[in-house]
Specification:
It is a single chain. The protein has 9 helices and 7 strands, in the order βαβαβαβαβααβαααβ. The chain is an alpha/beta fold. The chain binds NADP nicotinamide-adenine-dinucleotide phosphate (NAP).
Length: 247
């Protein structure tokens, strides 16, 4: 229960990796704010699972691409749970396709959600963490942000951008005892990867040295490490949870 008394906000906490992160942080004792974009029933299920682990949990709807909504969401966390110690920027989308045929709207949607969304949430939480002289920010990037992937120029740009953003913010907030780290998952079983065509799945599997997909819980444990006491002197780092893909 190393996170007892801490409050975490997890964007995209309704499903997949975000849900597993909410549950892991709750299991370790943190109260949790579960953010979602449209799927309220799933967000409520996540929150209920957290409550069953003995912590407080609230559900907050906000499109992370909307700056004002993120400001309001952080204000609600402070109002409803009293503080904010851990911010996990996990909300993310894909709009895959070759660049030649990529509509500008698909580029913008992915960058606005995955990269600008994290900026909005970090900026909204900045003063609170700076003033309390403690905080943990964990951003969910991707192996694709490190290595690139044909058909995912928008997604990999957003995930690579998240790494640069995290390293810079880590330096900006280091003297305030606020750490900013990145978890870069490989190929994890969630709705996002279930949507991949069979051929693409097979091709991806062949690039994983461990020859199997990861589970959302594998990523959640890495996030909890960065959020926990043991990682107090670790900042600006990228931890791949990918079965060896990025090696
Ligand atoms: P997922 O199953 O598709 O879930 C996406 C989550 O993000 C949902 O909770 C969704 O909320 C939320 N979301 C989407 N757009 C949002 C917005 N504009 N504002 C707020 N929330 C929004 O995805 P996942 O596979 O768990 O992925 C989670 C993160 O890990 C993403 O950043 C993804 O890029 C990254 N990642 C995943 C993999 C993988 O293999 N799965 C690999 C590397 C990185 P609703 O339920 O309300 O729609």
């Amino acid at each position: 229960m190393s996170l007892k008394g801490k409050v975490a906000l997890v964007t995209g906490g309704s499903r997949g990796i975000g849900r597993a992160v909410c549950r892991e942080l709750a299991r370790q004792g943190a109260d949790v704010a579960v953010n979602y974009a449209g799927n309220e029933a799933a967000a409520q299920e996540t929150a209920q699972a957290c409550r069953e682990l003995g912590v407080r949990a609230v559900v907050l709807r906000a499109d992370v691409a909307d700056a004002a909504a993120c400001d309001a969401m952080v204000a609600q966390v402070l109002e409803q749970l009293g503080r904010l110690d851990i911010l996990v920027n996990n909300a993310g989308i894909t709009r895959d396709g070759l660049m030649l045929r990529m509509p500008e709207a698909d580029w913008d949607a992915v960058l606005d959600t995955n990269l600008k969304g994290a900026f909005h949430c970090m900026r909204a939480a900045y003063k609170t963490m700076m003033r309390q002289k403690s905080g943990r920010v964990v951003n969910i990037s991707s192996v694709v942000g490190l290595r690139g992937n044909a058909g995912q120029t928008n997604y990999s740009a957003s995930k690579a951008g998240l790494i640069g953003l995290s390293k810079s913010l880590a330096k900006e907030l280091a003297t305030r005892n606020v750490t900013v780290n990145v978890v870069a998952p490989g190929f994890i079983t969630t709705d996002m990867t279930d949507a991949l065509p069979e051929g693409a799945r097979e091709a991806l599997l062949s690039t994983i040295p461990m020859k199997r997909l990861g589970a959302a819980e594998d990523v959640a444990r890495a996030v909890a490490f960065f959020a926990g006491e043991g990682a107090g002197y670790v900042t600006g780092q990228v931890l791949c949870v990918d079965g060896g893909m990025a090696v």
